[in-house]
Write a structure and sequence with these properties.
Layout: H1 3-7, H2 10-15, E1 16-18, H3 19-25, H4 36-46, E2 53-57, H5 64-76, E3 88-92, H6 104-118, E4 123-128, H7 146-155, E5 161-165, H8 167-174, H9 178-181, E6 184-188, H10 194-212, E7 215-216, H11 218-231, H12 239-254, E8 259-260, H13 262-273, H14 277-281, H15 284-288, H16 291-298, H17 303-317, E9 328-333, H18 340-352, E10 358-362, H19 372-376, E11 377-378, E12 383-384, H20 386-393, E13 398-402, H21 409-421, E14 423-425, E15 431-433, E16 438-443, H22 447-457, H23 465-480, H24 485-489, E17 493-496, H25 502-521, E18 525-529, H26 531-541, H27 549-569, E19 577-584, E20 598-605, E21 608-615
Parallel strand pairs: 2-5, 2-6, 3-4, 4-5, 7-8, 9-16, 9-17, 10-13, 13-16, 18-19
Antiparallel strand pairs: 1-3, 11-12, 14-15, 19-20, 20-21
Helix pairs in contact: 3-5, 4-5, 6-7, 10-11, 10-12, 11-12, 11-13, 12-13, 16-17, 16-18, 25-26, 26-27
Protein name: ATP-dependent Clp protease ATP-binding subunit ClpC1
GO biological process, one term: cellular response to heat
GO molecular function: ATP binding; ATP hydrolysis activity; peptidase activity
């Protein structure tokens, strides 16, 4: 462009980015991959008689701007119609006009449009987030609507532009403005498939290799695509995969490493999500191998629930579940202390190698209608939502909604969107994806029915198929007295937990004592015990109403203080010691006589006995 020509477009020169010039300086950096059809559609639309202003519609990160850059490159390479070959593509950021300089937003915007009209056939304007021109400039200042400036010009065919926006904003703003919508031709830009994204990154990786002076393996490219899909669900391909590649290459280059592989991609993702690298690098089959054993080791007496959870997760890992919803959703029904919460914790550890990969909410804290803001945030106070923020930080996690019956009905209804659409809108209007979460809802509704059934016919697992079906129907009726059918129908699996019988409670006691034994090893201590201790803990630590919940309290108050006190009295902490526990004394009888049972123990160092010590 000559100096004389530049003088007639001072506002375009100052406030727009000349994409044609930018692309010409380093054309290889602006090669667009996998979007030939969209670039062709832009050209075709510009050549139409009517509705000849293309608007690229797609989510952030799918490559809308890259398509415009690709079109500018096509002009430079003379790969367009002769009618378009003299166009200069200019990108306008509306935010660059917001200062009061040069008369403020509206004055500058009008000048830019006037210059576009004067240079029709020479300049093509690109406006990203074009929906913002509807009401841009701020109505509170009494400014004119920028849309009302540009619509008459477009209707008279005095200039052309390319717009870009998201699908939601296109529907909400552009389609509602009929005068603007009549001038625009939407071109849908969908997110590429994983296969297409891998091809795009493969073709573009040389640019990153040259810039960072590293090599990037094909395995790293594929890893970036697959892991970004799994662990960054609220962003879109190919942009989110490019981000992983770029950051991994930056780190490798900075640290003097010349190669980007799968491990380096996983490290970047760990920094972004907090998910351990070992978990990230596990394949689906490896993740599922041994899951049932892991769950059964922690949760006793609930084989049917464990099997159902493992089967559901297997379907999800195979990708055969409804892709619009969370990986899976469960309602755990049962009395207190039977393992509902423990199974949720075990699943978090089994799936993600981290018991902390659980987002837990006690719904007794959400009894009021206004408590919804605790979960999704409050726009007025700018308070962030506890649920939405935690899922943003840990998009791959177990969400435990504990004792849901205690929450306000409108708080419960909030989860309809999560269960049905796999997303939730926070107070800022941002959608948070729940597609990589496992939602577990627990309730004590129907507990009395379960206890009565247990006393009459035994545990749920012992019922005939006919009795099971009848009992499940009666439990559903019980649930419908508290929850709306719309909520219940969106939960994929409703699992009834068994009451804990004596045999199962003994298994739980042995498990908890084994955990103590493991902790004692770190202190060079060993532990053994007699059956009398198990019998005692079974008696005082379990009951029908609370299951095994009191057991942890009894062990904490009666067993651990005994061991801890004696350990602190030992003279040589470098010595290995062995504790042996048992119980003596009479238990209370039908006359409610005082419990005379006492825990006794002895401690030995090598072959030297420290004698008997009484503890009660």
């Amino acid at each position: 462009m000559t100096t004389e020509e530049k003088k007639k477009t001072p506002y375009l020169d100052r406030y727009t980015d000349n994409l044609t010039e930018k692309v010409s300086k380093k054309a290889e950096d602006y090669q667009v991959y996998g979007r030939d059809k969209e670039v062709e559609a832009v050209q075709t639309t510009l050549l139409r008689r009517t509705k000849n202003n293309p608007i690229l519609v797609g989510e952030a990160g799918v490559g809308k701007t890259a398509i415009v850059e690709g079109f500018a490159l096509a002009i430079l390479r003379n790969q367009v119609s002769p009618k378009l070959k003299n166009l200069t593509v200019r990108s306008l950021e509306l935010s660059s006009l917001m200062s009061d300089e040069d008369g403020g937003f509206i004055v500058k915007f009008k000048k830019i449009i006037e210059e576009m009209v004067e240079t029709k056939g020479e300049n093509l304007l690109f406006i990203d987030e074009i929906h913002t021109i509807v009401g841009a400039g701020g109505s509170d200042k009494g400014a004119l609507d920028a849309g009302n400036i540009i619509k008459p010009v477009l209707s008279r065919g005095e200039m052309q532009l390319i717009g870009a926006t998201t699908l939601d904003e296109f529907h909400e703003y552009v389609e509602q403005d009929r005068a603007l919508e009549r001038r625009m031709q939407p071109i849908m830009v969908s997110e590429p498939t994983t296969t297409q994204a891998v091809e795009i990154l493969e073709q573009a990786k040389a640019i990153y290799e040259s810039f960072h002076q590293v090599s990037i393996s094909s395995a790293a490219v594929k890893q970036a695509v697959l892991l970004s899909v799994r662990y960054i669900p609220d962003q879109f391909l190919p942009d989110k995969a490019f981000d992983l590649i770029d950051e991994a290459a930056t780190i490798c280059s900075t640290n003097g490493l010349g190669h980007v592989g799968k491990q380096e991609i996983a490290e970047v993702l760990k920094n972004k999500t907090g998910i351990p690298v070992t978990t990230i690098l596990k394949g689906d089959k490896e993740r599922l191998d041994g899951l049932k054993e892991k769950l059964s080791r922690r949760v006793k007496g609930q084989d049917e629930a464990v099997d159902a959870v493992v089967n559901a997760i297997t379907v999800a890992q195979a990708g055969l579940q409804d892709q619009r919803k969370p990986l899976s959703s469960f309602m755990f029904l049962g009395t207190s202390g039977v393992g509902k919460t423990e199974l949720a914790l075990a699943l978090a550890e089994g799936m993600f190698d981290d018991e902390e990969a659980i987002i837990r909410f006690d719904m007794s804290e959400y009894k009021q209608k206004g408590d919804i803001t605790k979960l999704i945030g409050d726009r007025q106070t700018r308070t962030k939502g506890q649920l939405t923020e935690k899922v943003k930080q840990k998009p791959y996690s177990v969400i435990l909604i504990d004792e849901v019956e205690k929450a306000h009905s409108e708080v419960v209804d909030l989860f309809l969107q999560v269960l049905d659409a796999g997303r939730l809108t926070d107070s800022t209007g941002r959608q948070v994806s729940f597609k990589n979460t496992i939602v577990i809802i627990t309730t004590n509704i129907g507990s009395q029915k379960i206890i009565k059934q247990y006393e009459l016919k035994g545990n749920f697992k012992k019922l005939t198929e006919r009795d099971k079906i009848q009992f499940e129907k009666s439990m559903t009726l019980e649930l419908e007295t508290k929850f709306r059918p719309e909520f219940l129908n969106r939960i994929e699996y409703k699992l009834i937990f068994n009451m804990l019988d004596e045999e199962v409670n003994k298994e739980i006691i042995v498990k908890q004592l084994s955990e103590i034994q493991e902790r004692m090893k770190n202190k060079k201590l060993t532990l053994s015990y007699e059956e009398s201790l198990v019998t005692y803990l079974l008696d005082v630590g379990t009951n029908i109403k609370d299951g095994a919940r009191p057991l942890e309290r009894v062990i904490k108050h009666k067993v651990l203080p005994l061991i801890s006190k004696e350990f602190l009295n030992l003279s040589d902490f470098n010595q290995e010691y062995h504790f042996h526990l048992w119980v003596e004394g009479d238990a209370p009888d039908e006359h409610h006589r005082e419990d005379k049972r006492e825990i006794l123990f002895e401690v030995e160092a090598k072959n030297k006995s420290f004698g008997e010590v009484l503890f009660s």
